[in-house]
Design brief:
The protein has 114 residues and is mainly β. It has one domain (17-111): Roll (SH3 type barrels). The protein has no helices and 11 strands. A 6-stranded antiparallel sheet has the order 6-3-2-1-7-8, with no helix packed on it. Strands 9-10-11 form a 3-stranded antiparallel sheet, with no helix packed on it. A two-stranded antiparallel sheet has the order 4-5. It binds zinc ion. Zinc ion is lined by residues 81, 83-84, 88, 104, 106-107, 109.
């Protein structure tokens, strides 16, 4: 038996503005700064912050509490359309150059990632 890793289809990309739809950070907005490979998780700036307690282990290290962004499941994220500035679902279609683009289901405009 060959184990096949499922690749999760994602509606968000690095650089997108997203809004959280459930959990502790519900309705907060942030920008995607990294995506996990095959995990369906993303790191969003300013969201899902966790405290990391650091202990100085060698000389020169600093101990203390650090706030870092933890990966958040992309299922809990919704894209914010740059055209109509609302949380929206994302569709896929071909544009005039025959490239696959995402589009906003609300205003039907293409969402191009930078
Ligand atoms: Zn829109």
């Amino acid at each position: 038996m060959v184990k096949v890793k499922s690749v999760k289809k994602r509606h968000v990309k690095v650089g997108d503005m997203v809004v959280v739809i459930s959990g502790r950070d519900r309705s907060k907005r942030g920008r995607v700064i990294a995506l996990g490979v095959n995990e369906g998780k993303a790191i969003v700036s300013g969201l899902n912050k966790v405290r990391k307690h650091l202990k100085a282990r060698k000389a020169g290290d600093e101990s203390g509490v650090l706030e870092v962004e933890a990966p958040i499941c992309t299922d809990k994220l919704q894209l914010i359309c740059p055209h109509c500035d609302s949380a929206t679902r994302v569709g896929h279609r071909m544009n005039d150059k025959n490239l696959k683009v995402r589009f906003c289901k609300k205003c039907k405009k293409d969402i191009t990632s930078k």
